[in-house]
Amino acid sequence: MEIGLLKQQIFTIRGYPVMFDFHLATLYQVETRVLKQAVKRNIFRFPSDFMFQLTKAEWQEVITNCDNLLPETAKFSPSIPSVFTEQGVAMLTSVLKSKPAV
To answer: What is the helix (H) or strand (E) element at residue 3, kind and residue range?
Structure first.
């Protein structure tokens, strides 16, 4: 993945630089639901400073303020995404089994 595109996928929420679960799923070449299942199975590895779910208000603010939020369908998803800090992104590599994650 191109560094410029990767930088565009980092947002600041609650004072943390974070990445959305759907962007990380693309990066690690897994479906978003697979990523979420792996996190649920290993939730003890993801304290609140590694990963947190956005509130409805936070998600609406992101949708309103980010014209370049890709994929475009993310804006219309019924589920509110989780976000991962740098430590959470690193921890994902230990719970996902895809080649890019390994």
So the answer is: helix 3-8
Q: Residues 6 or more apart from 52 whose CB is under 8 A from it?
A: 14, 82, 83
Per-residue pLDDT, averaged over 12-36, amounts to: 94
The tally of CA atoms less than 13 A away on the side-chain side of residue 31 is: 3
pTM above 0.85, yes or no: yes
pLDDT single digits (tens) 36-51: 999 999 999 999 999 9
Q: Is 39 helix (H, G, I), strand (E, B) or coil?
A: helix
**Cα 45 off chain centre by:** 15
User: Per-residue b/e over 65-84, b at no fewer than 16 CB within 10 Å?
Assistant: eeeebeeeebeeeeeebbbb
CA angle in degrees (0–180, nearest 5) for 74-72-57: 45
The span from the CA of 25 to the CA of 33, in Å, is 9
